[in-house]
Write a structure and sequence with these properties.
Elements: H1 2-7, H2 21-25, H3 32-59, H4 61-64, H5 74-77, H6 82-103, H7 105-123, H8 131-151, H9 157-185, H10 199-222, H11 224-230, H12 239-254, H13 262-268, H14 270-289
Helix pairs in contact: 3-6, 3-7, 3-8, 6-7, 7-8, 8-9, 9-10, 10-12, 12-14, 13-14
Length: 295
């Protein structure tokens, strides 16, 4: 069972916590019935994303065989055969859609669109420069949209823009790390899209997306809708943790060559983990317990 457990990449499910963003920022975190729906949405997205990971691993098995870490994946290593992997992907997709149907038609539509988009990414879009990183970013944004659709709330436009810039930042850092790894190890990769990128462009894209994310998040905390909803302007101070997180991530990406796996950085880097926890607790306190002070 271990090989099938690794096949669905549970370590990557942390990305699906984007589904919970609308739950927290719509002031529904302590409503049990709504939390249950949000959790079901999370499970549905986990099954959908695992479906995509399996299909992508099948498509990339030859290229992954040249990668020092990816060659250990179940499909690439031969631990799981392609027929068994396809059956697993089908089962997971059916589970995802079944759960989605129990939530709402809107949420189901987003899940289906996500699956179709990621299939297009696996077969074609990941080979087109720039389009590949935007497709990855859209995947993160769909997680946020699905979270809002699941609990039937309207999400702030500024929060959507923030998610877009953050997603682009993570996607670009992933490409940059892949490119540097290929260059440093002199690997003859089969992923032709990497040959179209260069580190200078990716460094510039990192700075642009990081700046856009920081500015849009700050504007979200000061928007009229946010002030009216939370009854306070103290949320602006959470920008300190956002800026620290961006600077720390940039340092790890540019100085240490990390970034290929954003989840790994969040989990393994103590400063990043602590900063995220403090940011989350600060936001929860301001949103739910600060009252109307400071307006």
């Amino acid at each position: 069972m271990k090989r099938y457990f690794l096949l669905v990449r549970p370590s990557q499910w942390l990305k699906n916590t984007f589904v919970f963003i609308p739950l927290v920022f719509s002031k529904n975190l302590f409503h049990l019935d709504i939390c249950v729906v949000a959790f079901l949405a999370f499970i549905s997205f986990c099954a959908a994303s695992s479906t995509v990971y399996i299909i992508n691993d099948i498509q990339d098995r030859e290229a992954d065989a040249l990668h020092p870490e990816k060659k250990k994946r179940p499909i690439t290593s031969g631990a799981v055969g392609i027929p068994a992997a396809l059956v697993s992907a089908l089962i997971l997709s059916l589970i995802s859609i079944s759960i989605a149907l129990s939530i709402s038609w809107m949420f189901t539509g987003i899940i289906v669109f996500y699956l179709l988009l990621q299939l297009a990414y696996s077969f074609r879009l990941k080979h087109i420069v720039i389009v590949d990183v935007f497709t990855i970013a859209i995947g993160f944004m769909l997680r946020v949209f699905s979270g809002a659709a699941a609990i039937d709330v309207v999400i702030s436009h500024w929060l959507i823009i923030t998610t877009m810039f953050l997603s682009l930042f993570l996607a670009v850092s992933k490409r940059r790390s892949e490119l540097l790894m290929v260059q440093s190890l002199n690997i003859n990769t089969k992923r032709k899209v990497l040959a179209e990128y260069d580190s200078n462009f990716l460094n510039s894209a990192l700075i642009i997306s990081a700046t856009g994310m920081a500015i849009s998040y700050s504007l979200y905390t000061m928007s009229e809708r946010t002030l009216a909803m939370f009854g306070t302007d103290y949320l602006i101070y959470s920008s300190i943790f956002v800026l620290f997180g961006m600077f720390r991530y940039l340092f790890l990406v540019q100085a240490n060559g990390e970034g290929e796996n954003p989840v790994s950085i969040l989990v393994k880097d103590p400063l990043t983990t602590i900063n995220f926890i403090v940011w989350f607790c600060f936001c929860v306190f301001i949103i739910y317990f600060s009252g109307a002070h400071g307006v």
